[in-house]
Write a structure and sequence with these properties.
Layout lengths: L4 H8 L7 E7 L2 E7 L2 E5 L4 E7 L3 H9 L1 E6 L5 H8 L11 E3 L5 E3 L4 E6 L2 E3 L5 E14 L11 E7 L6 E4 L5 E6 L2
Parallel strand pairs: 11-13
Antiparallel strand pairs: 1-2, 1-5, 3-4, 4-10, 5-8, 6-7, 8-10, 9-10, 11-12
Length: about 180
């Protein structure tokens, strides 16, 4: 007896996930994608885990460069997250950024930037690839005017199939709206 796909999906929808953009530089070009599969693995030594789409150009750039940056997005960067989630050329020309030491983009307005070097790539999975990377450095944590800076998170809405009414289930002040039929 196993868990059904619908039941599993419904359970995972209840997990609050932060929103990041993983960026990399390779052959003079910038690459990036929105990633919610990001986690701290260890504090000593500092290690992170990122899962990227197996067919993404960003993954190809990260694998070739053996380095990347994680941009931890703030709650007011929903449009940036959505733009980097779309397939195709990424809108680096429409967002402010500076170059990390490894050349990756550090997006302005992010709450934190983490520069990483790749130590291991697990590629035997059909959908995503895990990158276990030691953290090179945490460059900055932004707190605006002494106020609490809210990270971006994903939230869900229950959409009534008949009336199309939405009931939001927010995870916090920085939640992006991800509408899903439940």
């Amino acid at each position: 007896m196993g868990v059904g796909a619908g039941e599993y999906r419904d359970a995972l929808r209840m997990f609050c996930s932060g929103v990041t953009i993983v960026s990399a530089a390779h052959d003079g070009r910038l690459f990036g994608m929105t990633a919610t599969s990001f986690a701290s693995v260890s504090l000593e030594p500092p290690l992170v885990l990122v899962c990227l789409e197996k067919e993404s150009h960003t993954l190809e750039a990260v694998a070739a460069a053996r380095s990347f940056a994680v941009n931890v997005l703030a709650f007011d960067q929903e449009e940036v997250a959505r733009a980097f989630a779309r397939p195709g050329v990424k809108p680096f020309d429409r967002v402010g950024y500076s170059a990390a030491r490894n050349g990756a983009a550090l997006i302005q307005g992010a709450l934190a930037w983490i520069e990483c070097d790749v130590t291991e790539i697990e590629s035997d999975r059909p959908v995503a690839v895990a990158l276990l990377a030691p953290v090179s450095s945490v460059l900055r944590v932004l707190i605006d005017d002494g106020k609490r800076a809210y990270p971006s998170t994903v939230r869900i809405a229950r959409i009534d199939a008949v009336s199309n009414e939405r009931t939001w289930y927010p995870y916090g002040a920085g939640s992006f709206g991800a509408e899903m039929m439940l």
